[in-house]
From TrEMBL:
<keyword id="KW-0028">Amino-acid biosynthesis</keyword>
<feature type="domain" description="Aminotransferase class I/classII large">
    <location>
        <begin position="41"/>
        <end position="359"/>
    </location>
</feature>
<keyword id="KW-0032">Aminotransferase</keyword>
<feature type="modified residue" description="N6-(pyridoxal phosphate)lysine">
    <location>
        <position position="228"/>
    </location>
</feature>
<dbReference type="GO" id="GO:0004400">
    <property type="term" value="F:histidinol-phosphate transaminase activity"/>
</dbReference>
<comment type="similarity">
    <text>Belongs to the class-II pyridoxal-phosphate-dependent aminotransferase family. Histidinol-phosphate aminotransferase subfamily.</text>
</comment>
<dbReference type="Pfam" id="PF00155">
    <property type="entry name" value="Aminotran_1_2"/>
</dbReference>
<protein>
    <recommendedName>
        <fullName>Histidinol-phosphate aminotransferase</fullName>
        <ecNumber>2.6.1.9</ecNumber>
    </recommendedName>
</protein>
<dbReference type="InterPro" id="IPR015422">
    <property type="entry name" value="PyrdxlP-dep_Trfase_small"/>
</dbReference>
<dbReference type="InterPro" id="IPR015421">
    <property type="entry name" value="PyrdxlP-dep_Trfase_major"/>
</dbReference>
<dbReference type="InterPro" id="IPR004839">
    <property type="entry name" value="Aminotransferase_I/II_large"/>
</dbReference>
<dbReference type="GO" id="GO:0000105">
    <property type="term" value="P:L-histidine biosynthetic process"/>
</dbReference>
<comment type="pathway">
    <text>Amino-acid biosynthesis; L-histidine biosynthesis; L-histidine from 5-phospho-alpha-D-ribose 1-diphosphate: step 7/9.</text>
</comment>
<dbReference type="InterPro" id="IPR015424">
    <property type="entry name" value="PyrdxlP-dep_Trfase"/>
</dbReference>
<comment type="subunit">
    <text>Homodimer.</text>
</comment>
<keyword id="KW-0808">Transferase</keyword>
<keyword id="KW-0663">Pyridoxal phosphate</keyword>
């Protein structure tokens, strides 16, 4: 056996060394292996997926389809037409992509050069930071106020000539609150590209979000996904509502056939079965209120009101530690989201599931009472 040794002349870009890998919620497989609990007994409430399956007609259409041997329609014409009906925004403003995580990757690479920055308001979705680093750019963090509203004055003060993007999440993950129109209009006035991530908008009191503003502005992008409300996280399908000039660049930068055929079918059929899917959304928002009341009834938990399909709670560690709660719920097969950032260490996020999942959480927490 020879081992060859060739000179290593090329290294990755220098900023790759400060790139922290995005840590997604633990998978069913990994949790099962770690705990010995069989996959079918696990209650997965750590990644804000839907606990409800897609409509039966969606599953039927996916299995009836016979043209998987052909590439998808690269223009996504049928899906963009359905999305135009659903959002009320003309198809010229719609770009379909494989998940909004990938939309973030695409948009960030369109706008950021090395040395630029992105303004974001933690606590929020941490993928924005990893992708920013991947672009050789930096994140400007303007923390939210107590109660988690945006600190608009601090945002305006923080902007630099290198600030290209302002990213806002509405409802915000993990705090669950929505943004008001006036704040968006103020930020649009800065001339920066304002990106509103509406991954959870269907669960909000105003489920239409800010789509209606897109045709009126040259610097507003709204991102949406079928992962959360529509139960299609596994098919990876998302879309952006953008000004026409930006959508032209996005289409150019996309690889051909990026959104697969199954994703197209899943999304189109979901929009045809809208009543079915929105019934499930309603079940989830009702359950959210019951889960909130339940969590609030435990003296060691301080849940935050939410417009999403999840609830953030602060743990009063003088009474019970996050570690003890984690052990108790994991013994019941329940997977929740924990945080490694220092300012979020005493928080836990739980996805709203079915009523029986709430009951199971109650049983697990009950064991912790003194
Ligand atoms: C879950 C989530 C996403 C990712 O959605 P995909 O379409 O599944 O990639 C994007 N933004 C936020 C805020 C999320 O919580």
């Amino acid at each position: 056996m020879y081992t060859y040794s060739s000179p290593r002349l090329v290294t990755v870009r220098p900023e790759m060394d400060r790139l922290a890998q995005y840590a997604p919620g633990e998978s069913l497989e990994a949790f099962s292996e770690r705990t010995g609990i069989p996959i079918e007994d696990i209650i997965k409430l750590n990644s804000n997926e839907s606990s409800y399956e897609p409509a039966p007609t969606v599953l039927q259409a996916l299995s009836n389809f016979r043209n998987y041997n052909n590439y998808p329609d690269a223009n996504s014409t049928a899906l963009r037409n359905s999305l135009a009906d659903y959002t009320g925004v003309d198809g010229r403003h719609i770009v379909v992509h494989h998940g909004s995580a990938e939309l973030i990757n695409l948009l960030w690479h369109l706008f950021l050069s090395v040395g630029d920055n992105v303004l974001c308001c933690p606590p929020t979705f941490s993928l924005y930071t990893s992708v920013t680093t991947f672009c050789g750019a930096h994140v400007l963090e303007v923390p939210r106020k107590p109660g988690y509203e945006l600190d608009i004055d601090a945002i305006l003060d923080a902007l630099t000539p290198e600030t290209k993007l302002i990213v806002l999440t509405s409802p915000n993950n993990p705090t669950g609150n929505s943004i008001c129109e006036q704040d968006i209009l103020t930020l649009l006035d800065t001339g920066r590209i304002v990106i509103v991530d509406e991954a959870y908008v269907e669960f909000a009191d105003n489920p239409h979000g800010f789509a209606y503003l897109v045709p009126q502005y040259e610097n507003l992008i709204v991102m949406r996904t079928f992962s959360k409300w529509a139960g299609l996280a596994g098919l990876r399908i998302g879309y952006a509502l953008t000004p026409e000039w930006i959508q032209a660049y996005m289409r150019r930068a996309q690889c051909p056939f990026e959104v697969n055929v199954a994703g197209h079918i899943g999304a189109i059929e979901t929009l045809k079965a809208l009543d079915y899917t929105l019934d499930n959304v309603r079940r989830i928002t009702q359950e959210r209120e019951r889960l909130y009341a339940l969590l609030d009834s435990y003296s060691f938990l301080h849940p935050v009101p939410s417009q999403g399909n999840f609830i953030l709670m602060r743990v009063d560690e003088d009474q019970v530690s996050v570690r003890e709660i984690r052990a108790a719920v994991e013994a019941h097969g329940i997977l929740l989201r924990y945080f490694s950032q220092p300012e979020m260490r005493d928080f836990i996020r739980v996805t709203v599931g079915k009523p029986e999942h709430t009951d199971k959480i109650d049983s697990a927490l009950h064991n912790l009472l003194p």
